[in-house]
Amino acid sequence: MIFALIDAEKTHHHVSVLARVLGVSREGYYAWRRRGGQSTRAADDQTLTTKITAVHAASRGTYGAPRVHADLAAAGVRVSRKRVARLMRNAGLQGVHRRRRVSLTRADRAAHLPPDLVGRDFTAPAPNRVWTADVTYIPTGQGWLYLAVVLDLYARKIVGWSMAAEQRTPLVADALTMALRHRRPPAGVIHHSDQGSQYTSREFARLCQQYQVRRSVGSAGDCYDNAVTESFFATLECELLDRTSFTTHDQARAALFDFIEGFYNRRRRHSTNGYLSPHDHETRFNEYNNAA
Q1: What architecture does CATH give domain 130-291?
Q2: 259 has a pLDDT exceeding 80
Q3: What is the pLDDT of residues 74-105, one digit of tens each?
Q4: What gap in Å lies between CA 125 and CA 286, rounded to an integer?
Q5: C-beta of residue 150 within 8 angstroms of C-beta of residue 177
Q6: Which stretches make up the Integrase catalytic domain (predicted)?
Q7: Where are the alpha helices (DSSP H) in the chain?
């Protein structure tokens, strides 16, 4: 800023000379000094930067400008997204970025495959209508820890999960069982997954039949057929796994539980939900329908 430059150089040159060379008035410089050395805009920027820094820290350092802007708007702070982006750049703050995930799918060619009931239509009119599921891996000092999740398409909420040292059918069955017990969906809820052998096994088919869950399976080797769950895992990787290392399985389990329940489901703003968290988006749906 010009007045700040004059202030820094006034011990070496007369203020009137500096003002004339820089094309401003001497009176303007002294008015700036009386205001405390900052313009109103600069003072507002400093206040906003403090708020932005707090929001970014609360997001565990993961939010970029769109989600920071949404948090500020929810708190009643009126500011443009471009200004938020500029102040974040100036403060050296940035969101994290996703990378591509390696697939763990191992298809059983002899298995009877259910039909694809989703067809890449990743929308749902209400909670507990369509669930998607997948498995990822977490490296630790004790070897791989596998995480299976069940995601409700309506609000992108993780409604079931399971962790184990082996990638077998009980891993995905436990995740589905958790979702069934906590959500108690109506008969006919769709469970969509890839062609992994865990999801096409007889044991898993029996579990789905017992609870009247309709199985759905995408095509082989195509991540787009299960894009929403893949997107969650990409978020998990760039916002937790790429930034943390685990010595033991127990450390990883605790961190994953905290990320899913303490942050992702309840606090993290999701663009598909109009920048509401999965919990808040689902709560709005329930409140509206209970009031109707």
Answers
A1: 2-Layer Sandwich (3.30)
A2: yes
A3: 888 888 888 888 888 887 877 776 555 555 55
A4: 12
A5: no
A6: 123-286
A7: 2-9, 15-22, 26-34, 40-58, 65-74, 81-91, 169-183, 202-210, 227-239, 249-257, 278-291
